[in-house]
């Protein structure tokens, strides 16, 4: 490197000037997962300045919900360029869908020194609800149902970029006969995705069977899965019995909560995946089957491998194709459609005609539900069943969920000639103003509102409370 080149390389102001001229958002992360530099376009896209981000770690960015996942880590793991669609958040809390290209920079030792991320906005910034009228929601649902007939039949509704990616990937995966591992928290809809895979596969006319590996006693699960021969054990049927693997021949067997499968049975499942054959309990003749296996779990199987409660070879046999379903808190755009779906469902079930008010819907869209879609469904059922009003309001929501917030506090706002964002922020500010009056700490507010403490802190800063 000559003198001019060295002078150029050492001029950090010049480097900042150069990357600021780029129309592409750029962020550079070092090997210690710390932000080194960002550019002006990144600040425009996210609202976060270089000064704020520099020195922050990836873990801190995820914790503060600046990003929900780190492309950089995948680059470091794979040691190659990675391109991913990523959901992230602006400093005002608005979610944005971005395409991130992570490029590794190797030092003289062949180790990754930096990861340069080039970020592209993949569309207009989405709002949780475009309009708050129930007619608009119904119209949106009709369009969605016409477009996704199969997902409609299975009860899958979505509009978020992250779920769109999951469904698009599932459509590709469904056409194969490979084993699939579905990952996701409890209640996100793993069983629905498993049914989706079956319904879109060449096996759709075959049998689809489900077994929850954590719900069947260890003493019974082997015979349930693989069946048994006559006289295999005391109490066995004289003619023997087919297991679920055999009954699903030509179709699909969904093994839910695969992480709970007994360790001694895992080797038998491994043989089934490798050889497409198994032995019944008490049997000596292998039985050949053409059964596709789809598995799901809400636990970290790699941790279970370290604990020696899950076989590593089985993990890699199951994880041929992987689908990860994001939790509901990372796709709040889906909540209004889910609420409307469940409202219609339970109105029909209980022969009622309940509506959900706009302010209640906005508040539901901001909830962080640990039980995800399942918890939201249970909540809407309670609202429909126990509210004595035709139009369910925010106060009804407080009573059903028991947020312990003063019901006498008045929350006023007007909808006419105002955008969703204006209305939402007004309600949101009132909620956190009232919560700050009632509770002493952000931890206590988070506990009663059932949201993360970091979300509470961010909201209080945002509204200057």
UniProtKB/TrEMBL annotation:
<feature type="domain" description="PAC">
    <location>
        <begin position="77"/>
        <end position="134"/>
    </location>
</feature>
<dbReference type="InterPro" id="IPR030828">
    <property type="entry name" value="HTH_TyrR"/>
</dbReference>
<dbReference type="InterPro" id="IPR013767">
    <property type="entry name" value="PAS_fold"/>
</dbReference>
<dbReference type="InterPro" id="IPR003593">
    <property type="entry name" value="AAA+_ATPase"/>
</dbReference>
<dbReference type="InterPro" id="IPR027417">
    <property type="entry name" value="P-loop_NTPase"/>
</dbReference>
<feature type="domain" description="PAS">
    <location>
        <begin position="11"/>
        <end position="86"/>
    </location>
</feature>
<dbReference type="InterPro" id="IPR000014">
    <property type="entry name" value="PAS"/>
</dbReference>
<dbReference type="InterPro" id="IPR009057">
    <property type="entry name" value="Homeodomain-like_sf"/>
</dbReference>
<keyword id="KW-0067">ATP-binding</keyword>
<dbReference type="Pfam" id="PF25601">
    <property type="entry name" value="AAA_lid_14"/>
</dbReference>
<dbReference type="InterPro" id="IPR035965">
    <property type="entry name" value="PAS-like_dom_sf"/>
</dbReference>
<dbReference type="InterPro" id="IPR002078">
    <property type="entry name" value="Sigma_54_int"/>
</dbReference>
<dbReference type="Pfam" id="PF00989">
    <property type="entry name" value="PAS"/>
</dbReference>
<keyword id="KW-0058">Aromatic hydrocarbons catabolism</keyword>
<dbReference type="InterPro" id="IPR000700">
    <property type="entry name" value="PAS-assoc_C"/>
</dbReference>
<keyword id="KW-0547">Nucleotide-binding</keyword>
<dbReference type="InterPro" id="IPR058031">
    <property type="entry name" value="AAA_lid_NorR"/>
</dbReference>
<feature type="domain" description="Sigma-54 factor interaction">
    <location>
        <begin position="156"/>
        <end position="385"/>
    </location>
</feature>
<dbReference type="Pfam" id="PF00158">
    <property type="entry name" value="Sigma54_activat"/>
</dbReference>
<protein>
    <recommendedName>
        <fullName>HTH-type transcriptional regulatory protein TyrR</fullName>
    </recommendedName>
</protein>
<dbReference type="InterPro" id="IPR025662">
    <property type="entry name" value="Sigma_54_int_dom_ATP-bd_1"/>
</dbReference>
<dbReference type="InterPro" id="IPR025943">
    <property type="entry name" value="Sigma_54_int_dom_ATP-bd_2"/>
</dbReference>
<dbReference type="Pfam" id="PF18024">
    <property type="entry name" value="HTH_50"/>
</dbReference>
